[in-house]
Amino acid sequence: MMPWLSRLLPTCRDMSRLLSDAMDRDLPFRMRARMRLHLLTCVLCERYKDQLHLIREALRKDDAGMEDKGSAKKPCLSAEAKERIQRALDSHRR
Amino acid sequence: MADRVLSDSQTMVEAHGDFLYRFALVRVRNPDVAEDLVQDTFLAALQGSHYGTGPMAERGWMIGIIKHKIIDYFRRTKREPIHNPVQPDGQTADEEFLADGHWNAEGVAMQGWPDGLLERRQFWDALALCLEKLPPRTAQVFTLREMDGVETEKICELLNVTPVNLGVILHRARKQLRDCLSRRYFGHAQEGVQ
């Protein structure tokens, strides 16, 4: 990128924060335009942005990390906890 | 009819208990609170009319209930404001940037991710592990925003955070999670490269 132009644009460090902010609120038009220009020439920021959005997509699946999609052992209610809950439910039903 | 459905509370605990427990635990980060939330959710479910409409409908309905219970829990609990969000893992956020503000392209965390990641078990394992590494308050903020899509104003009010700090917390959490996932994928062997 031409040096005079890159001086006008956010750095990658700035971009990492701005890309996060853009996921939570609408940024002003001029800022969005400067970010777009940066992204046009910066594959690493483009990648970072895609990764943040992929993480969000994964987490917004309702069962993210809760179902046994992975192979690792997930936290479970202990047998005692299940009994406690069971007892509470039964006492409320009466 | 009603009796038959109600006598199914044991089935309900077996069918949804672990799922709802994990759902709550990843958000509130406290096993006792998570257990209470599951119990409250079942109590509400038993009083409702959806119970007995089939496992899929039940699951979605219970998720709706427990989301509300979790928000209520945050609202009830008085919280110290987060004044100065600390760096989550003690490492400076700047390590991955060069002096001129560009990414350090050599960093392990900068590697591209393969396609079809969401289909891979390894990714979901890594995601669960990396989520657990977020500090508790950060995890509460982050899961409300990223998992449940709660608006930032509401999160500030629920968790007693200023909008400025919220921005910092979310930015750091996202970056920490991205870095953690990349490291899990591309291994410790390359860790020394940086």
Characterization of the model:
The complex is a heterodimer of chains A (94) and B (194). With 94 residues, chain A is mainly alpha-helical. Chain A has a domain at 1-64. Chain A is 67% helix and 0% strand. In chain A, helix 2 (12-22) packs parallel to helix 4 (43-60). Chain B has 194 residues and is mainly alpha-helical. Chain B folds into two domains: 2-76, Rna Polymerase Sigma Factor, Chain: A, CATH 1.10.1740; 93-193, Arc Repressor Mutant, subunit A, CATH 1.10.10.10. Chain B is 62% helix and 0% strand. Chain B contains eight helices and no strands. In chain B, helix 2 crosses helix 3 (31-47), helix 3 (31-47) packs across helix 4 (55-76) and helix 5 (121-132) crosses helix 8 (163-186). Chain B is globular. Residues 1-7 and 188-194 of chain B have low confidence and may be disordered. The chains are: A mainly alpha (94), B mainly alpha (194). At the A-B interface, helix 2, helix 4 and helix 5 of A face helix 2, helix 3, helix 5, helix 6 and helix 8 of B.
